[in-house]
Structure formats: structure tokens, C-alpha cells
Amino acid sequence: MQLDAFDRTLLNLVQEDCSRTAEQLAERVALSPSAIQRRLRRLREEGVITRDIAVVDPRKAGRPTFFIVGLHVEREQPKLLAELRRWLAAEPHIQQAFYVTGEADFVLVITAPDTEAYDGLMARLVTENVNVKRFTTNVALGIIKRGLTIPIPERPDA
User: Fold this and answer.
1) Mean pLDDT for each consecutive 10-residue tract of the chain (158 residues)?
2) Domains of the chain
3) I need a labelling partner for 1 at 20 to 30 A (CA). Which of 24, 41, 42, 77 fits?
């Protein structure tokens, strides 16, 4: 799908705040509210926008602890990796999971109410996934920046 300048501007705006109305977006993009709605519907249908979410302040939601985990697998067999990916994707405490190059095979961002809950999750991970060799854990001491925004240049060649 080709994104034009209107799409690009619109995507940046809804990533910033997806609760804006079509009328509010139309004030920032030189299109009518109905054209904005059509474009947003098309961007969703084409899978450019995959979902709309609310970003929750962790301090106001019980101050969960964030863990950044390097996960190492025993074997990189496609079937075993697929099973592990499904497990990781289904676990609600795993916010992000990346299959990566380097020392670890996966990098995970996990949130849990405390270290005991994290230990329980990791015990289940190792027990239910025989291909997990080991993992390393970093505990986040503070949040400097947290988000999922993809910066989209106004021009495709920028």
C-alpha cells in the first residue's frame, strides 16, 4: 500500500492520540472529516493501523515492575521456535517480544506486580517450553521513555 502525505500526517497524529475525532484531525490535515474517516478505515483494513490502544501510567496502575529479559534457546528448530513464539504471544505479562541477533535469541519486555510474580512467570516459561536454555534478567529502575510510536516521515524519500 502506498502512503501519501495525508496518510503519513494522519498516522503520526493518531499515534500521538488516537482518541481525536475526525473533526479534530481534519483541523490538522487538509481534508474533510469524512475523508479522514475513509482514510482511517482503509488504513485499518490494509493492516497499516493494527489496533488502537490506551497507554496506562504504571504508577497510577499499581506501579508494576518492568523486566527486560534475554532469552536463550537450546535449538533453533522451526517447530520449537514456533511453539515458543505462540507461548510468548499469548502471555499477557509479556508486553513485547523480539526475535533478535546477538547473544540472546529473544529479548522480552515483561511487566509484573513484583519479583515473586515474575519468578512464577519465568518458572512456567521454562517448565512449559523445553527449548528454553536460560535467560538473563534486567530490572528496570526507572522509566525514561515508553511507547510504540513509529516515526513516519512526511515524504517517503525522507
Assistant:
1) 93 96 96 97 97 89 91 95 97 96 97 95 96 97 91 81
2) 5-45 (1.10.10), 65-139 (3.30.70.920)
3) 24
